[in-house]
Specification:
The chain has 11 helices and 8 strands. It binds pyridoxine-5'-phosphate. Pyridoxine-5'-phosphate (PXP) binds next to strand 8 and helix 10.
């Protein structure tokens, strides 16, 4: 099984900064620390309402990641504004997500079937500019096929429903994990690179990381929260170790 990459999402460092309108804590400093601690890349979501990451953060993150030779995964909604920002900065990757202003976080995957005619030309322009494009989708084989049809090279499977079911000790957790497994298998079968993310913590990371087709996990909120107690570097290192353990058991 190939090594599973860890992308660290630093959005919520900016959430804390913005809560007081100060210049600290600095998400770019968090990105530097995350990379030093073993993160394979950095993920940042520039929301339309700029509630956490700002345009200036993205500018600096592009420079920081480029200097460190590590990928920046630019998460954004499918809008003309976000497309223009991606094309101006040319991050390594862009992850297309749905966005509703009233939501607390990205609550579900992008509906690629409904949005095909809007999404396909955006994917085409981003891919033509050399950006690796992923679609953030629910673990649904129909959405997997639709992602392939719009020309995305990558799918990121939304793990939020599974992670929440585990935290709430709900019996449907097993079925939700099975859906993630099936969607990952289908993605790989179609030649897509398969990632996963949202809501992952120390408990849920191992069953997710054991899905053999996955190439990358993107994890943020839990790590930033855990950093309050044990520091960002140790939190990332522990997550990394759990990912490696899950893969080692699977390979054994
Ligand atoms: N992947 C995507 C596409 C996301 O939208 C998010 C949340 O911004 C994450 C991963 C990380 O989720 P969390 O912060 O819950 O770990």
């Amino acid at each position: 099984m190939s090594r599973l990459r860890l992308g660290v999402n630093i959005d919520h460092v900016a959430t804390v900064r913005n809560a007081r309108g100060e210049g600290y804590p600095d998400p770019v400093r968090a990105a530097e620390m995350a990379l030093a601690a073993g993160a394979d890349g950095i993920t940042a979501h520039l929301r339309e309402d700029r509630r956490h990451i700002s345009d200036a953060d993205i500018e600096q993150l592009v420079v920081t990641c480029r200097r460190r030779g590590r990928p920046l995964n630019f998460e954004c909604a499918v809008t003309a504004e976000m497309e223009a920002i991606a094309l101006a900065h040319l991050p390594h990757a862009a992850c297309l997500v749905p966005e509703r202003r009233e939501e607390v976080t990205t609550e579900g995957g992008l509906d690629i079937i409904k949005g095909h005619n809007t999404i396909a030309p955006v994917v085409n322009r981003l891919v033509s500019a050399g950006i690796r494009v992923s679609c953030f989708i629910d673990a649904d084989p129909v959405q997997v096929a639709a992602s392939k049809a719009v020309g995305a090279q990558v799918i990121e499977l939304h793990t939020g429903a599974y992670c929440q079911a585990v935290r709430e000790r709900r019996p449907e957790a097993d079925a939700l994990l099975q859906r993630l497994r099936a969607a990952a298998t289908e993605g790989a079968r179609l030649g897509l690179e398969v990632h996963a993310g949202h809501g992952i913590d120390y408990e849920t990371v191992k069953p997710v990381a054991a899905i053999p087709e996955l190439m990358e996990l993107n994890i943020g909120h839990f790590l930033i929260g855990e950093a309050i107690f044990i520091g960002l570097g140790p939190a990332i290192q522990r997550m990394r170790a759990l990912m490696d353990e899950a893969r080692a058991v699977k390979a054994a």
